[in-house]
Amino acid sequence: MAEREQIDALVRALDDDPDPLHLDMTPAVQALGEIGIDAVPALAAPLESPSADTRLRAQRALEAIVLRRHGFAPGRGFPDERSEQDAREELARIGYD
User: Fold this and answer.
1) Which single residue of 2, 61, 67, 85 has CA 20 to 30 Å from 40?
2) What angle separates helix 4-12 from helix 27-35, to the nearest 10 degrees?
């Protein structure tokens, strides 16, 4: 389990140092995605932020968590079609189209 202090620090840094080509991605977004399910509760507040950029980055972190839970690896994709379908279904259950 990731330490709460680490997760809280990453959430505070959610908007820091965005990738110039992908403004929705920051080092904190990627790190939270790698931490996984332990980071989900800490994303509740940023998902309701008045800042559209903050909400989008929190959304990207949540997406990364769900995708990784189903075996997604950046640069490689999903291990199989069933894993991708499971990830899509989970995202749909939490409100993604």
Assistant:
1) 85
2) 150
